[in-house]
Amino acid sequence: MRPFAHFSPKSLDEALDTFRREGEGGRPIAGGTDLVVQLKEGGHKFPYPRYLVSLRRLPELKVLEWREGEGLRLGAGLTMSEVVESALVRERYPALVDGAGIVGSLQTMNMATIGGNACNAAPSADTAPPLLALEARARVVGPEGERVLPVEQFWLGPGRTVLRPGELLVEFLLPPPAPRSAAVYRRHTPRKQMDIAVVGVAVAVELDGDGRTLKRARIALGAVAPTPIRARRAEAALEGQAPTPEAIARAAALAREEATPISDVRGSAAFRRHLVEVVTERLLHEAIERARRG
Ligand SMILES: Cc1cc2nc3c(=O)[nH]c(=O)nc-3n(C[C@H](O)[C@H](O)[C@H](O)COP(=O)(O)OP(=O)(O)OC[C@H]3O[C@@H](n4cnc5c(N)ncnc54)[C@H](O)[C@@H]3O)c2cc1C
């Protein structure tokens, strides 16, 4: 690695000031599990940084707070381990635990942050589909102030986000889970651990009062497009319908059509499309069953 300066601010304001003061060539670093590897291997898609600003000591990025009627504030600087170990997240947003709990090894999970996973913008990022299916919003703060956007608008392409220079992802805002709802995330990988999703699928469903109709369905796909995506046609085909095996199979087939994967060493495009259908169908059954049980 080439040399760079390193700053370790203790607050969000101080971090923003550092970027302002030091000017161009700065890069935030959280757990470093993506960034350090990229800098070492030269795989970064941006100019080599002149300085790094560590986010590890910013209390604003460590928030984990439930607000009645509003939902969860989930700091971007929380590590995967902190997300997984939170009783609040486990109880109310288990799909996030499904994603955060499989990021690399225990050592990776102790360093990797949920915000870093989003900001690295890999189409295969394991926390992206659950965040999409749960309709999280991202709070971003930068030199021009603050903005809150649906997480769906956060990614622009592989390794690219809407973040402007000096802007930081501060937290995710998750709406409270509705009654009779459930969400789940699974990925397909050839190996059980230490692998990248060939396909990742998150499904969130909400049943109506008597449990006979799907009031809402959210289907999010990872690793099958330049960014994590929502399968909106599949969702629309389910909403307002009885969750019969036929309706579920039809929606899964639509999700397959919405995927635009590439072929690479981990799987062909055709295999990935096939997986989207199989995993989506399976997860819809699982989530609907869980929502029924309440
Ligand atoms: C051995 C190993 C196994 C892995 N396995 C998986 C896996 O199974 N699934 C998976 O999804 N990922 C996996 N990863 C990738 C990685 O761990 C995650 O993407 C991780 O969540 C990145 O978080 P970080 O805090 O380490 O980010 P960093 O490496 O610190 O940063 C990543 C990028 O995001 C930017 N950034 C970080 N935080 C912010 C912020 N708050 N605001 C603005 N920009 C920010 C940085 O500038 C950098 O460009 C693995 C990595 C390793 C090394």
Lay out the secondary structure.
Blueprint lengths: L4 E3 L4 H11 L3 E4 L5 H7 L9 E4 L9 E4 L3 E5 L4 H6 L1 H6 L1 H7 L5 H6 L2 H7 L7 H6 L3 E6 L2 E6 L4 E3 L2 E2 L6 E7 L6 E8 L10 E9 L6 E9 L6 E2 L1 H7 L6 H14 L10 H25 L1
Parallel strand pairs: 1-3, 2-3
Antiparallel strand pairs: 4-5, 5-10, 6-7, 6-10, 8-9, 11-12, 12-13, 13-14
Bound molecules: flavin-adenine dinucleotide.
Number of strands: 14
Average pLDDT: 96
Tell me, what is the CATH class of the largest domain?
A: Alpha Beta
Ligands, ions, cofactors = flavin-adenine dinucleotide
Termini gap: 52 Å
Biggest sheet: strand arrangement: 4-5-10-6-7
Q: Name the beta content range.
A: 15-25%
Instruction: Tell me the radius of gyration.
Output: 19 Å
Sheet/helix structural class: alpha+beta
Q: What's the order of the H and E elements?
A: EHEHEEEHHHHHHEEEEEEEEEHHH
Silhouette:
globular
Number of domains: 3
Total helical elements? 11
The largest pleated sheet is described as: 5 strands, antiparallel
Q: Mind telling me which CATH architecture of the largest domain this is?
A: 2-Layer Sandwich
Percent helix: 25-40%
CATH topology of the largest domain: Uridine Diphospho-n-acetylenolpyruvylglucosamine Reductase, domain 3
Task: Characterize the structure shown.
- The chain has 294 residues and is of the alpha+beta class.
- It has 3 domains: 5-54, Uridine Diphospho-n-acetylenolpyruvylglucosamine Reductase, domain 2; 59-174, Uridine Diphospho-n-acetylenolpyruvylglucosamine Reductase, domain 3 (2-Layer Sandwich); 187-293, CO dehydrogenase flavoprotein, C-terminal domain (Enolase-like, domain 1, 2-Layer Sandwich), CATH 3.30.390.
- It contains 11 helices and 14 strands.
- The chain has helices at residues 12-22, 35-41, 80-85, 87-92, 94-100, 106-111, 114-120, 128-133, 232-238, 245-258, 269-293; strands spanning 5-7, 26-29, 51-54, 64-67, 71-75, 137-142, 145-150, 155-157, 160-161, 168-174, 181-188, 199-207, 214-222, 229-230.
- The strands form 4 sheets. A 5-stranded antiparallel sheet has the order 4-5-10-6-7, with helices on one face.
- It is globular and about 60 Å long.
- The termini are far apart.
- The structure holds flavin-adenine dinucleotide (FAD).
